[in-house]
Amino acid sequence: MNRIAVAAVLPTAAILMAAAAPPTTPAPVDPAKIEITTTKLAPGVAVLFGAGGNIGVSYGVDGTVFVDDQFAPLTPKILAATKALDSKAVKFVINTHWHFDHSGGNENLGKEGSVIVAHDNVRRRMSAEGIIEELNAKFPPSPKAALPSVTFAEGVNLHLNDDALKVAHVRAAHTDGDSIVKWEKANVLHMGDVFNRSGAPFVDRSSGGSVAGMIAAMDAGLKLADDKTQVIPGHGPMSTKADMQAYRDALAAFNTRIAAEVKAGKTQDQILAMKLTWKAAGGDVPADRLVRSAYQDLAAKK
Ligand SMILES: [Zn+2]
Hints:
- With 302 residues, the protein is α/β, with parallel strands linked by helices.
- The chain has one domain: 4-Layer Sandwich (Metallo-beta-lactamase, Chain A).
- The chain contains nine helices and 16 strands.
- The chain has helices spanning 3-17, 75-83, 100-103, 106-111, 120-127, 211-224, 241-263, 268-272, 288-301; strands at 37-42, 45-49, 55-58, 64-67, 90-94, 115-119, 130-132, 137-139, 150-152, 155-160, 163-170, 178-183, 188-190, 230-232, 277-280, 283-286.
- The strands form four sheets. The chain has a seven-stranded mixed β-sheet with strand order 1-2-3-4-5-6-9.
- Helix 7 packs across helix 9 (288-301).
- It is globular and about 60 Å long.
- Bound molecules: zinc ion.
- Zinc ion binds next to loops.
């Protein structure tokens, strides 16, 4: 199964399950079915694609930094891919947020000595049972080795490998613990799932996310980007500032559309019956989850 198919299948299967059944913990991914591919972006900077969130990598004389680490069963393959970059031990792991497909490798890497760095709310959420309502998924509290041992409220900078990685928190966006990461010198930007190009934008309201926060977070990302910035989305192909702008504007237009339907007196079910879609990198996809998020944000404001 190629990586696009894997990325597309995970959320779709979860949507089908999201009826009245109690939440369950997703089955582990099968590493035999996943290929990790590497693209070098700049000297000492690469991106790894596999299953789950895209991994940004800083490597060089000062050690390796991962931005996200996908799923636990993939750790050996991920490390093998970075060895091919001639990288050293993974000194730091930055989690863009707590979700299982971005932090699943934390325990393995933490046990190997990596220092895990994330927003305060990532540690808080991983310390207790986690629920992603829209995926009908639940996760047990993470073991100590998987928890971020360095946390921050607004941001933190890492100075290594002849570059500065600026980690900035964006509030109440995809979750309440999102960070975006900019390589200042290499001009690479990792947007985490604030910018998700493998399906419709996903706002995890059960983890404190909001549509308005997603739009604001895209604006924060756009301020860090120029026409030469190489943008790593949480999922999907490498992107540009123009791709970010188009996604941000489409998300704002979508939200405005839902607001108009709500103002016209439509219920959530009536809006869902319109079968609105989202133009994703691989083609149009259903936008039911985004409809629910936008509708419920508006309902919560009333
Ligand atoms: Zn996520």
